[in-house]
Write a structure and sequence with these properties.
six-stranded mixed sheet; Glutathione S-transferase Yfyf (Class Pi), Chain A, domain 2; alpha/beta; binds magnesium ion; 2 domains; globular; binds adenosine-5'-triphosphate; six-stranded antiparallel sheet; Rossmann fold
Length: 365
């Protein structure tokens, strides 16, 4: 998919801006605090219906304004769709071709982006919940069914935990809930396993390509069950086995809400031995693997958003990365300055200054 144009009204520090993007590399330059990341954030919002930076959506609305309006035109297999989000003080309205849609699950997937931002590296040290969030976010992009199963599971889990807190627990009711939970978990575990397998098919080679180092990186799935034969039967068994302990502790201790993923370098958690540069390249290889995962599963190439990634790489690796994203993906890349190398390519450049954007050079189809 290609974002043909992006229009912002009262979003962050933009009063009004409209950009015609090219199919290849779109370079967003500007000094600090001018609005480069804000531009990428608007596309993330249209992809996920939320920001990657903040939970309080009111902050996305330009100061003293009643609403923010983000819209883009996405080209996909020769057809064009306009997707739009209007954020106001008491929520948001999502529109496809100007028609409001009620459920986020009908909206997510119209535009798929993969973002690399410097803050992503925190994920290695963060709580498992945050790593699960990343995994959920990516799988949701390819499957609304996954999101539905997650929501189902969360409400069953809440119900089970309420039951466990009661003075006398109704075990027969617990069993009924466990069976229903296992049904949702079967879908979730199946899709998480497939996600990790697909990422691992390409991530080690991508890392070697970016870094030039012969190191093996990958992601390990810490699943709540060990044996993945008959998933449903295994999951029911898992809940049954931990039931007495759950009753004593008055909460559900096992299940997909406790799973995690571990990023590894040569079989060891990256937080233990990887250098800062190696962590950065591991995250980049992961993001590049996500592009392939989403592309493979949806048949549509996502748009790559690279926020401030070049300043953190040495020159050889900058070149390597640019080569890797050049052809197959539409890319928006921000930086305060760019290496000359990039100007030999098919690109379009926009200069951002205090919430205004001007196309400065480059043709770029
Ligand atoms: N709701 C808002 N209303 C008005 N301005 C805002 C709002 N939210 C953020 N800003 C402004 O947006 C600017 C930051 O934009 P952004 O994070 O995109 O900068 P940047 O160009 O990516 O900078 P850097 O190079 O430092 O990363 C700041 O000046 C900030 O005050
Ligand atoms: Mg920024």
């Amino acid at each position: 998919m290609i974002v043909r144009s992006l229009r912002l009204r009262n979003f962050r520090n933009y009063e009004y801006v409209s950009l015609d993007l090219c199919e290849g590399m779109n370079i967003i330059t500007g000094e600090n605090a001018q609005g480069k990341t804000n531009l990428l954030e608007s596309l993330v919002y249209l992809s996920l219906t939320r920001s990657h930076r903040i939970a309080d959506e009111k902050k996305l609305i330009r100061e003293d304004m009643p609403f923010a309006d983000i819209a883009c035109r996405v080209e996909d297999n020769d057809s064009e769709t306009e997707i739009q989000a209007i954020i106001h003080n008491h929520g948001k309205t999502l529109l496809i071709n100007r028609n409001p849609v009620k459920k986020s699950s009908d909206f997510i997937g119209r535009l798929n982006v993969v973002l690399f931002a410097p803050d992503d590296l925190y994920i290695f040290n963060d709580q498992p919940r945050e790593r699960r969030r990343i995994m959920n976010q990516e799988i949701t992009k390819i499957s609304p069914q996954y999101l539905l199963s997650l929501n189902q599971y969360q409400s069953l889990l809440r119900e089970r935990n309420v039951l466990l807190k009661q003075e006398k627990t109704d075990e027969r009711y617990l069993e009924v809930l466990e069976e229903k939970m296992a049904e949702a978990e079967t879908i979730i575990v199946g899709m998480r396993s497939e996600f990790i397998d697909t990422v691992n098919e390409v991530m080690p080679d991508l890392y070697r390509e970016i870094s030039g180092d012969d190191i093996h990186v990958g992601v390990r799935y810490r699943c709540c069950i060990e044996n993945k034969g008959d998933l449903r039967a295994e999951l029911i068994q898992m809940h049954r086995e931990s039931r007495q302990r759950d009753i004593e502790r008055r909460m559900t201790l096992n299940g997909i809400h406790r799973e995690d993923i571990v990023f590894e370098k040569d079989g060891v958690n990256v937080i233990q031995t990887a250098s800062q540069g190696q962590k950065r390249m591991t995250m980049l290889a992961f993001k590049m693997a996500l592009l392939r995962y989403i592309g493979k599963k949806t048949g549509k190439k996502p748009v790559l958003l690279l926020d401030d990634v070049l300043s953190e790489l040495d020159e050889t690796r900058q070149k390597k990365l640019l080569e890797m994203v050049q052809e197959p993906y539409q890319c928006l890349i921000t930086a305060t300055s760019f290496p000359e190398e990039i100007r030999k390519r098919n690109y379009r450049e926009f200069r951002i200054e205090n919430g205004t954007a001007a196309a400065v050079s480059g043709g770029g189809r």
